[in-house]
Amino acid sequence: MAVTTAADRWLRTRTPRPSADLALVCLPHAGGSASYYRDWGARLPASVEVRVVQYPGREERFVDAPVDDMAAMADALVDVLAPLFDRPVALFGHSMGAAIGYEVARRCEERGHPAALLLASGFPAPHRRAPGDLHTRGDDALVAEIARVSGEPVDALAGAELRELLLPMVRADYRLIERYAPAAPPPVTTPIVVCRGDADPDVDHAGGEAWGELAASGALSGHHVFAGGHFYFRRDPTALLGVVSARLGQIRSTTTHQG
Questions:
Q1: What CATH code is assigned to 6-131+186-258?
Q2: pLDDT (tens digit per residue) in 12-41
């Protein structure tokens, strides 16, 4: 099918549910793609339609230039997501995607259609995160960092040809997130729920709790800790999806009651 709209380029929906009560927009990690969430739609309740963002420069968008600037990424996504707000929209972002999710939530509020929920996974509050410079370093350093965070060897980047194909996209993602250093990001009225692995090397309890400083209420709406490292839900997302389902069910219940 021909790609004709911005939504066609940016969003993937493996389990279409146009009559669902709410939409869940998933924002992948640095180097990640929409396929990482390929079965989420089928595993969440029929009241939820899962729309996964496909960043430029990967999978079927391989020929599109990667976006390496946070403002440009968030601005583009707010335009793409605007038509979804005929129903409640929740955002789930993992790692880099969590920071993008916050910037998208902030922009959505400025436009008068706030997100119903931000699920920030595997990332410390952006204003409490130490800056990085991996995007300026050599390929070996970047591959080593990917292996460190994932907790296992990155076989896909072992060969020179695949490195040449994939690393420019990964480097652009690191450039985006490492240059993103908001000193005093404004709080959002969107409720924030933090999810993280108990053995994540980059986000601990304090880093997770600091997201509460970005909530207009002054506190998180939840802080869930799961067994595992940075990619704690990679092999089995059952526990995480249980939390996501429950949180989305609360939104649905509140919306139905208000209606």
A1: 3.40.50.1820
A2: 999 999 999 999 999 999 999 999 999 999
